[in-house]
User: Which sequence fits this backbone?
């Protein structure tokens, strides 16, 4: 370190001397009475020397983790990319995300990197979840085969009977899985990572919205919140104002009913859009 | 090796022929079925009140009135009230009407992201209360009979506790009350019960999350997505969800009545509304995770929901094979309410089966009518 500082100090000294041609110098130039033009001539040499010193400093200061051909080969190998978040690529992403944050510089880049990282976490969680489910199906099949081939087992007399046995076995095995702690943990991790990915998508989308004068999801949510709260306050005030009247007179129909006239209906109202889903 | 003889070639040929015939008939039937044949919730009704997305319907009488006070049905946000009138011969509402009951029902509508900030308090103390007040005003009565279903039962419990003067009789069906009781009833595998089989599926799923997970889920989606609720329920019978459109459908495809019933049920299942976000947080965190209702800690609008303040008659109807709301979760109500007039009706079947199952038709409505009629007679 001392050697580096000495080199740096020497180069700075030469540099300053080159920039002060009119002043007497402590070096040999002073004794020879060098002129302004001599000083200007010395400037490129001082500049070159400074660059060389700094290059030397930079090289010495570099962490010994240079990119080797092997490392580059592994980085760009499709095998490394096939696994979600695998290998050096994932590490590089992590380092980029954990690097210093310089105000708003590269904010969008960082958001995109975080989006990529969240997608990898979600994919890993999905793979873990799927492996549990696949394992349960394999287990169900093993149990089914064992039950059908054990000595004394009754053979199914029709394809339907066989299918029913298989479905019953699969249902029982999957039911056991769904109540296991491993499955609940994997499911939670998948839901958690999917939520985080969705929120990260929103962060990127909101960056675009802000740049293009479009209201963001967060802003619209805030508006909805305000409307809901204002509606509550309005109804509280309406209820407070109506209280004396309500006590005195019982109206035949409420105010809301008047504003929403009775509509004879035999299920003629527009049905909401159907969504996929299952319930017991 | 299997001891039983395998089917002969003739058996196999016969089965194949039957299968082909079934498919042929099924194909003909399916081409004839039109959208209007698969309508649900078709009982004659009238929109009498609405606020925001909430609608209140009054059903046309089909018999002479035998109970004066109207019955208001409040379903939950998990699913839709149309299940109570699936089709003409599978309808709790029609069965109540046939017995001379004046029936109203609330439709909470289809919440969107704009409804994210609605809370339990909004549903109980604003929408439900407005519906009750409308009925009281329009019918010139002081109270109603309140019938809550599932989460709607929780709404009804909260409403009755906070507004005791507006409810004459409280009827709850398949309603969760103590969200942690199922853990005590959990099978350990030693007594023949499969480990975990008595645990409510929603209870287990909700308890596997942290409050922060729920917060982030709602923040990301705005609401509790209907598709996610559907997925959780589908885990109860995983292969049924996968096989109902192929193997399962074979059972009904050549029978018009059964086929239409199947399609109407599917229509109801597919119509899964989103649960408003803030109310979903209260449901999952305050109730499922923290069990605040049973512990007497649940707060609505700064007021504690005290179940001991419910002193009116209470009828609790539940399903013995309900794996979503296991019987202990709802039977806990007996010890929590302040009334001395508490009745239970335990029905065969599962969570929804008690309402739409062929065997249970009329049983729910008869039980409710008899119970109400007895109380009306006493009051008179």
Assistant:
């Amino acid at each position: 370190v001392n050697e580096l500082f000495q080199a740096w100090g020497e180069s700075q000294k030469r540099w300053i001397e080159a920039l002060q041609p009119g002043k007497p110098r402590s070096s040999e130039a002073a004794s020879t009475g060098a002129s302004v033009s001599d000083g200007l001539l010395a400037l490129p040499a001082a500049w070159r020397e400074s660059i060389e010193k700094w290059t030397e400093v930079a090289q010495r200061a570099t962490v010994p983790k240079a990119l080797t051909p092997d490392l580059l080969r592994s980085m760009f190998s499709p095998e490394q990319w096939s696994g979600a978040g695998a290998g050096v690529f994932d590490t590089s992403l992590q380092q980029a995300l954990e690097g210093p944050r310089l105000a708003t510089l590269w904010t969008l880049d960082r958001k995109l990197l975080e989006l990529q990282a969240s997608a990898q976490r979600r994919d890993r969680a999905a793979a873990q979840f799927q492996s549990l489910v696949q394992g349960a199906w394999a287990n169900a099949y093993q149990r089914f085969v064992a039950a059908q081939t054990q000595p004394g087992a009754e053979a199914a007399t029709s394809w339907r009977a066989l299918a029913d046995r298989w479905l019953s076995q699969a249902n029982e095995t999957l039911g056991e899985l769904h109540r296991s702690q491993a499955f609940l943990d994997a499911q939670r991790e998948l839901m958690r990572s999917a939520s985080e990915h969705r929120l990260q998508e929103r962060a990127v989308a909101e960056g675009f919205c802000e740049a293009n004068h479009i209201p963001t999801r967060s802003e619209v949510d805030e508006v909805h919140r305000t409307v809901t709260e204002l509606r509550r306050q309005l109804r509280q005030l309406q209820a407070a104002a109506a209280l004396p009247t309500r006590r005195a007179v019982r109206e035949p129909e409420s105010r809301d009913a008047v504003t929403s006239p009775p509509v004879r209906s035999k299920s003629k109202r527009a049905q909401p859009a159907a969504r996929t889903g299952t319930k017991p | 090796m299997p001891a039983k003889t395998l089917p002969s070639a003739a058996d196999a040929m016969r089965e194949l022929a039957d299968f082909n015939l079934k498919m042929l008939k099924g194909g003909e039937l399916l081409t004839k079925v039109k959208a209007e044949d698969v309508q649900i919730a078709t009982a004659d009704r009238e929109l009498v009140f609405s606020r925001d997305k909430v609608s209140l319907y009054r059903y046309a009488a089909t018999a002479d009135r035998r109970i004066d006070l109207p019955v208001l049905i409040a379903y939950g946000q998990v699913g839709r009230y149309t299940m109570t009138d699936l089709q003409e011969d599978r309808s709790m509402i029609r069965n109540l009407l046939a017995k001379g009951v004046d029936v109203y029902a609330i439709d909470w509508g289809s919440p969107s992201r704009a409804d994210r900030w609605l809370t339990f308090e909004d549903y109980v103390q604003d929408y439900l209360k407005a519906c009750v007040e409308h009925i009281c005003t329009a019918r010139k009565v002081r109270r109603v009979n309140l019938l809550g279903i599932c989460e709607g039962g929780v709404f009804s419990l909260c409403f009755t506790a906070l507004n005791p003067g507006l409810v004459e009789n409280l009827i709850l069906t398949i309603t969760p009350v103590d969200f942690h009781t199922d853990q005590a009833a959990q099978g350990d595998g030693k007594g023949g019960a499969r480990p975990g089989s008595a645990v409510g599926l929603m209870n287990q799923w909700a308890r596997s999350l942290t409050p922060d997970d729920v917060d982030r889920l709602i923040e990301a989606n705005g609401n509790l997505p209907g598709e996610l609720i559907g997925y959780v329920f589908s885990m109860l019978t995983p292969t049924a969800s996968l096989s109902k459109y192929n193997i399962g459908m074979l059972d009904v495809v050549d029978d018009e009545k059964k086929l239409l019933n199947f399609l109407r049920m599917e229509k109801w299942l597919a119509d899964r509304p989103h649960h408003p976000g803030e109310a979903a947080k209260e449901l999952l965190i305050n109730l499922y995770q923290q069990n605040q209702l049973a512990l007497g800690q649940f707060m609505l609008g700064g007021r504690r929901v005290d179940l001991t303040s419910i002193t009116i008659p209470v009828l609790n109807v539940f399903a013995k094979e309900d794996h979503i709301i296991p019987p202990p979760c709802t039977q806990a109500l007996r010890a929590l309410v302040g009334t001395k007039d508490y009745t239970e009706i335990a029905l065969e079947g599962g969570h929804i089966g008690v309402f739409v199952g062929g065997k249970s038709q009329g049983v729910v409505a008869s039980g409710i009518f008899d119970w109400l009629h007895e109380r009306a007679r006493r009051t008179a």
Q: What stands out?
A: The first helix of chain B runs from residue 9 to 32. Chain B is about 45% helix and 15% strand. Chain B touches chain A through 86 residues (CB under 8 Å).
